Amino acid sequence: MYHIKDDQRSIRSGEMIYEGLVKLMREKEFAAITVTDLIDAANVGRTTFYRNFDELEDVLWMRCDQVASGLVEYLRAYRQGQQAESRSTILKPVLRYFYLHSELIELLMKARRIHIFEEAMLSRFRPFKAVIGAFYGLEGDYVDYVVALRIGGITNILTHWIETGKKQAPDELADRLGVIVSNMGALEQLL
């Protein structure tokens, strides 16, 4: 678990440690990185590391939480500017956001820790369960399935898109996938 306090020194230390981890992950596998490696790369003391983090993976958790919070804010701003667009469309702004912020996903994929991103996303979207349930006309456990389906789908789409070099523009990919999903629904009705 990470313990970043709401003060400038703690926040700056967390950023320095994350930047050190990014540097190291470009050079070697995550599993081969030690706390000693990280404190040397980040130019911080061991005490600073352990005051803010319990283990190396916590640095990734911190950044995932930050990115997920940033995404929620981006989605809110996007929704305010796109009143006419379907309320169910979430993929387009997510792809736009990660077109510019894909470094973290790339690091998580390399470290085989993409589950951290999924958990961070789930924790940020759980407070919206009532809104999601009302939108889909669902209650209870079924809302959890919708959230899991959406977060899992987004995570898998992001990882594949990033693995393949983000060849498609975010809007193009979101529009094409929207058509594909619609066609899949129509096909289900025919069968």
How would you describe the overall organization of this protein?
By secondary structure, the chain is an all-alpha fold. Helices cover 75% and strands 0% of the residues. The chain contains ten helices and no strands. The protein has helices at residues 8-27, 35-42, 46-52, 57-81, 91-100, 103-111, 114-125, 129-136, 141-163, 170-190. The relative contact order is 0.10.
Key words describing this protein structure:
191 residues; mainly alpha; 10 helices; 75% helix; 0% strand; globular
Rg for CA atoms: 19 Å
Residue share in helix: over 70%
Number of strands: 0
How are helices and strands ordered from N to C? HHHHHHHHHH
Largest sheet: none
Uncertain segments of ≥5 residues (pLDDT<50)?
A: none
Task: Note the beta-strand portion.
Answer: under 5%
Number of helices: 10
In short:
This protein has 191 residues and is mostly helical. The chain has ten helices and no strands. The protein is 75% helix and 0% strand.
Strand and helix map with partners:
Layout: H1 8-27, H2 35-42, H3 46-52, H4 57-81, H5 91-100, H6 103-111, H7 114-125, H8 129-136, H9 141-163, H10 170-190
Helix pairs in contact: 1-2, 1-4, 4-7, 5-10, 6-7, 7-9, 8-9
